[in-house]
Amino acid sequence: MIILDATTPPEIYDKLTDKAVDYVSSDIYPDVNVYQLTTAKYCMSTLDSRDEKNQYKTRNMLFHFVEGICRKHAGEKVLVVCRKKYEKLLKEYLSEERIDNFATNHYGGLRGSNEYMDYDVCVLMGGCYHNKTALERDSIVMGISKEELEELYQKNEMIQCLHRIRPILRGGKTWYILSNEELEFSFPKERVKKLNKRSFEKMLFGDTRNKRIRRDILDLTKDNELSRIEIIKKVKGDMHIINSLINELLREKQLKKVEEKHGVGRPTVRYIRNF
Fold first, then answer.
1. Could you give the CA distance from residue 252 to residue 246 in angstroms, rounded to a whole number?
2. Cys-Cys crosslink for 139: which of 100, 146, 239, 268, Cβ 3.0 to 4.6 Å?
3. Region for 140 from its dihedrals, namely left if φ exceeds 0, alpha if ψ lies in -120 to 50, beta otherwise
């Protein structure tokens, strides 16, 4: 028996048949640059969680990274793949930021599609997780544990989505994986540049973004004494970067700290530009 199948993970056939299975594949590797954000898997529960200020901090951070990718690849076409429930929200966010070189689609809706083969960049925003009911059904039919099947489905779906921009047909394309899911590529793992959150932001925005944040902090505190929380609320950017730049400006004596004591307890600390 010969099976021609470019999508199903080979492990599925191992489970479905009691016969020896030989796999034949070509050694054609895509000419693609790969960057992976390794901080977390970014599953749906994480993206739907709110912080103490009732803000979707993690989801907004990924939206911010997608914006940075689109700006970094201005003049190129960017495909962003995410969970279906985030598509509309992401489109609205990017439109408000005046980004127009992107298209969005969702996990489960792209298999075999050639619609995006002329795109230059593919971004996977968050992990891919399948319907629990369908997983239980397939697990029973195939005789494969639900956990094992879920892992196979997730990784295969993400690989499938990356290949929608067809890097094998035309090289020089770029993949961004905003999830630390360990994917199996046909090329050596060393080609995947793995970055934590701060390194990823620096790669996208570099010194230009930090200069803008420094300038915004100094402009805000020119005639106003503001707390760190107030500065973070008013300045656009990652809160860790903003905090770091406040400390940097203090060391350079471009900002000065003003402490006010009100009764017992710690004093209130505010910051103002140091002329």
1. 10
2. 146
3. alpha
